[in-house]
Amino acid sequence: MNAKHAFLAGLALSTFGGVAQAADEVNIYSYRQEFLIKPLLEAFTAETGIKANVIFSKSGLLERLEHEGANSPADVILTSDVGPLHDAVERELVAPIKSDIIDENVPSQYRSKDDLWVGLTARSRIIYASKDRVESGEIKTYEDLADPKWKDRVCTRSGKHSYNLSLIGSIIEHNGEEQAEQWLSAVKENLARQPQGNDRAQVKAVMEGECDVALGNTYYYGHMITNEEEPEQKDWARSVNIVFPNQEGRGAHMSISGAALAKHAPNKDAAIKLIEFLTSEQAQKMYAEVNFEFPVRPGIEWSPLLKEHMGEFKADDVNLGDVVKHRATASRLVDKVGFDN
Amino acid sequence: MSETAATTSLVNTRKPSRFMPGWYSVAWGSALLVMLPVLAVFWLALFPTENIWPHLVETILPVYIQTTLLLLAGVGSLSVIIGVGTAWLVTMCHFPGRRLFEWALLLPFAMPAYVIAYLYTDLLEYAGPLQSMLRDLFGWQTSRDYWFPDIRSLGGAIAMLTLVLYPYVYLLARASFLEQSMNIRDASRILGCSPLQSFYRISLPIARPAIAVGLALVSMETLNDFGTVDYFAVKSLSAGIYDAWLNMGNLGAAAQIASLMLVFVVLLISLERIARAQQRQFSGADRFRSLERYSLSPGRRLLATLACSLPVILGFLIPFLVLGSYAVRRLEQLTEPGFIANAVHSFALSAVAALLTVMIAIVLAYSKRLYPHRTSLTLAARLSSLGYALPGAVLAIGVIIPLATFDNSVDAFMQRHFGFGTGLLLSGTPFAIVFAYCVRFLAVSTGSVESSLSKITPNMDMASRSLGLNPLHTLRRVHLPLIRSGLLTAVLVVFVDAMKELPATLILRPFNYDTLATFVYQYASDEKIETSALAAMLIVLVGIVPVILLSRTITATRKG
Questions:
Q1: Does the predicted TM-score (pTM) go above 0.90?
Q2: How far is A104 from chain B (nearest CA, A)?
Q3: Residues of chain B neighbouring A68 (CB-CB closer than 8 A)
Q4: Is the pLDDT score of B271 beyond 50?
Q5: At a CB cut-off of 8 Å and minimum separation 6, what does B18 contact?
Q6: In chain A, which stretches have pLDDT less than 50?
Q7: A310 part of a folded domain
Q8: Which residues lie below 8 Å from residue A51, measured CB to CB, with a gap of 6+?
Q9: Angle CA(B271)–CA(B42)–CA(B66) in degrees, nearest 5?
Q10: The pLDDT of residue A26
Q11: d(CA A319, CA A108)
C-alpha cells in the first residue's frame, strides 16, 4: 500500500467509524495486561507525542492480525513470553526491526537471529526452597529436581504453562529430548500434588508445608514481598529462599517479554520509535520497578528491591529462539509422561 | 393453548401458491450468516500443521474425554436436581419464602463463572478465611494435619459451574410446571399417587422437553467453558483445544478437536430428541384455573426453605458479599470516566445483541413453522445454534475469518475499480462483537422463541391467512403479541449472557475499548480480582434487573 492509498484508506476508515489512523499514533496488539504496560505507554506518549492504542487479549490476536492481512491497523505486537513471537515469525506476520539503537540496547541472546523480534524484559525461572525444611546448597540445579530425595516435595504450576514449556524446551536444547523426557518423568514422580495454580500459589504451598521446593518466575517474589494490599503474601515470600539454578553450569533459565513489528504496520516509524523507547534506559528502569523484571539492557541500575533480594546471578545465554522452537515437543513430553494428570 | 404435535403441518407447502420465496431466502440467509463462524472453524480443521491425533490418542485424549464426560455428567445431573427440584417446590408447594425464592433462585445466573471460581478459591484455599478459622479452632499446624476438599479440582469445577448454570434448568422447568394442567395432577392423585409419585409420573415427564432444553444449554456452556477449567487445572477438551492452538501452534488441530466436540453435541441432542420422539405432548387447557399448592408439614416446610436457600446463598449471596467487601474499598473507581465508558459499552453491546439475536431466532422459528417439511431449513437452524458449544476464543477466530475476508474483498474491489480502498469496514468494530454474541447466544433464544411459538394453535395461522394477512403481517399481528412473554424471556437471557461474555469480546474489540467483563478479566487474570471487584459487582447488578423482570414474566403466565 503506497502512501496515497494509506492516506485514502485512513480517510475512509475514519469516515466509516473504523480505527482512526493519524500519523502520530501507534497501534498495539498486546498479549500483556494493559495495566502492566500503561505507565510505559504514558511515558512514551509524554516523550514523543505519539498516542498508543491498545488491544489486550491472551489469545487470538495473531489470528486477527493474520486474517486482517495488509489492511490490519496493528503496528506492534507485545507479548509476555517468546511463544507468540515465535508463532508470528512462523506465520510470516512480522517484519525485521531495523534499528541500530535496539541492536545496541539489547544483547543478542534476547533478540531473534534475524531481528524479527526483540526481548524487552527478562525473568528467570528459579527454585523457591523452604527456609525451614531445605538447607542452603541442598538443591542447586534443575536436574536436582529429578533426584528421588525430593519425592512428594516438589510443587509447580501446569506443565503446559508457557513458562514451564520454556524451561523444558531449554532442557531439550541443552541435554537432548531423551534426557529431557527422563528428567520430566522423574520430576513428575517427585510432585507433591497435581500441578495447579500459578507461580505465586506454589510459594504459598511451600509456606503451608504442602511441598518443600517449587518452580517459579523471579518477579512473583517481588510482587509478594512488597504486597501491601494483601500483606499475608509477604509471609509466603519470607518462608522461602531463592535459588538460582545451575550457577556452576549453564546458568539459570531466562525468559522474556518482547515485541515484534507487524509486517503491514501502517505506522512503521512510530512503531520502531516505540520499541526503541521500550529498550531505553527510562523504560527499562520502569519495567523493573513496575513488575520486578530484569532489564534486558546491560548497565541499567536495578531497583533496590531487585538488588536486595535477587543479587547477581549467572543467566543461561542460549538464544531464546533455540529454546522456543522446542515448545511443541515440550508440550508433547508433558502429555507423554502425564505430567499434569 | 391446545395440543400440539410436532409433525402437524401448519401451512401446506406442497401447494406452490403458498410458497413464499421471500421468507425462505431471508430465513436461509440469516441461518447462513450465523453459521459462518462455525463453518469457518470446520474449514480451519482442514488445515492442521501436522496430524496431532496419533499423539493425542496415545497420551492425553483419554484423559480429556474422561474429564469432559465427568464434568458434563456432574454439572448436568446436579443442575437438573437443583433446577427441577427447586422449580417444583416454588411452583407446587407452600413454604416460607416461596415468593422470594421464585426470583432469588435466578440470581446466580447473573454471576460470571470465572468470577465465582476466583472468589471461592480465595475463600476455600489453605490461606483463605475458612481454613484459617478451622486451623485456629482445632490447633492444626499445616495442611498435612487435616483433610480439606481441594477447590482446584474436577469436583470444584463441577460445583462452580453448577452454581451458575442450574438457573437455565430452573427457568425452563418452572415455566413448564406453571403451564401444566391441574386436572391431570388431580387425576393422578385420585388414582392413588402420592404428591411425590405424581411429580415423578406426571409433572416430570410433561416437563421433560423443557428440562432437556435447559440441560442442553447447561451442557454447551460447560463444554465451552475455559476460564474455570483452566484456573482449576482441569483437563477438559477445551483445555486440549487451547493446548493444541497455543502451545503446539496448531490452530487446525485445535479446530479439529472443537469440531469433534460439536459433533458430540449434535449427537447428544439428537439422541434426546429420538428418545422423546414417541412422546406426544398435551398441554392442558386450564391455565386459568389457579394452581393449588400442596401444604407441607412444618418439618418439610423447613426442608423446602433450606433446599431453596442453599443454591441462592452459595451461588449468589456469598460471592456477592465478598465482591461487595472488596468493592467498598474502591468506590472512587465509580467516578473514573473509563469505568462509566466500560459500563456503557457492556450495556449497549448486550442490548443490541439481545434484540438482534431474538430477531434472528424469530425468523428461524417462524420459517420452520411456515415450512415444516423443509428439512434443510431445520438443519440450518440447528447448525446455526452450534456456536454456543464452541469455546469463546475459537468462536472469535471463526468470526474474524468471514469478516476480514469480506472487508478485504470489498477493499480489493474498490481499489481495483475506483482507485481507493475501504480498509477494514467491520473487523475491529463493535459490530464484530455484536455478531459474535448473536452467533454465540442464538441457541439460548431459539429455544425460548420456538417453544412459545409452538404453543400457538395452527388454527390461528389459518384464520389470519384466510382473512387475507400475509405471513409477515400474521407474524406481527397474531404471533408476536401472543408470544410476548417468551420473547421477553429470550431477550433478557441473551442480555445477561452477553454482559458476562469474555473471550470473544477480548479478541474482537476495537483499540482502547473495554467492557466491564474485559476490565474485570484484566485484573482477575493476574490474580487481582479485588482491584476490579466494583466492575464485577456492576456486571452482577445490571444482570439482576433482567433476572427479576424474567421471573415476573414467568410468574405472570399463571395466576395463583
A1: no
A2: 31
A3: 400, 404, 407-408, 424, 427-428
A4: yes
A5: B11, B12
A6: 1, 4, 7-22
A7: no
A8: A22, A24, A25, A26, A45
A9: 50
A10: 96
A11: 8
B507 touches chain A (CB under 8 A): yes
Per-residue confidence (pLDDT) for residue A216, from 0 to 100? 93
What separation in angstroms does the CA of A144 have from each of A141, A245, B338? 5, 9, 49
Domain spans in chain B, listed from the N-terminal domain onward: 33-41+51-329+346-555
Chain B residues within an 8 Å CB radius of A59:
242, 245-246, 393, 503, 507
Pair A24, A166 in one domain? no
* pLDDT tens string B400-423: 999 999 999 999 999 899 988 888
Collapsed DSSP state (helix, strand, coil) of residue B422: coil
Exposure of B191 in the CB half-sphere (CA atoms within 13 A): 10
Q: Say yes or no: A154 and A12 in one domain.
A: no
The pLDDT score that the predictor gives to residue B192 is 81
Q: How confident is the model at residue B432 (pLDDT cuts 50, 70, 90)?
A: very high
Average confidence (pLDDT) over B84-102? 91
CATH number, position A134:
3.40.190.10
Is residue A75 within 8 A of residue A268, CB to CB? The reply is: yes
Number of domains in chain A: 2
User: Taking the CB of residue B154, how many other CB atoms lie within 10 A of it?
Assistant: 19
Contact partners, residue B492, CB within 8 Å, separation at least 6 = B354, B546, B547, B549, B550, B553
Angle between helices B113-124 and B129-138 (to 10 degrees): 20
- Strand A213-217 vs strand A76-79: parallel, antiparallel, or unpaired? unpaired
How far, in Å, CA of B203 to CA of B194, rounded?
A: 12
> Which of B57, B427, B519, B530 would best serve as a mutation to test chain A binding (most A beta carbons within 10 A)?
B427
Dump pLDDT digits (tens) for B136-171: 888 887 767 778 888 888 999 999 999 999 999 998
> What residues contact residue B99 under an 8 Å CB cut-off, 6+ apart?
none
- Are A61 and A83 in contact by the 8 Å Cβ rule? The answer is no
In a domain, A32, yes or no: yes
User: A206 and A69 in one domain?
Assistant: no
With a cut of 70, say whether residue B3 has pLDDT above it. Answer: no
Q: Tell which residue, B221, B225, B237, B217, has the closest CA to residue B66.
A: B237
Q: Do A189 and A330 belong to one domain?
A: yes
Distance CA A116, CA A95 (A): 6
- Cross-chain CB nearest to A63 (options B250, B251, B415): B251
Specify the amino acid at residue A106: V
- Please report residues of B whose CB lies closer than 8 A to that of A19: 424, 428, 510-511
Q: pLDDT category, B5, cuts 50, 70, 90?
A: very low
Same domain flag for A131 and A219: yes
What span, in angstroms and rounded, lies between the C-alpha atoms of A331 and B253? 14
**Do A137 and A228 fall into the same domain?**
yes
Is the pLDDT at B128 greater than 70? The verdict is yes
Query: A260 is in which domain, residue-wise?
Result: 3-121+255-301
Instruction: Report if residue A19 sits inside a domain.
Output: yes
Is A240 among the domain residues?
yes
Angle, vertex CA A40, rays to CA A38 and CA A46, nearest 5 = 100
Whether A147 and A194 map to the same domain: the answer is yes
Binary contact (A210, B126; C-beta < 8 A): yes
Residue A7 and residue A72 in one domain: yes
| CATH number of this structure's domain B33-41+51-329+346-555, picked from the four choices 3.40.50.720, 1.20.1260.10, 1.10.287.3510, 1.10.3720.10 | 1.10.3720.10
Instruction: Quick: pLDDT tens for B25-47.
Output: 888 888 889 999 999 999 999 98
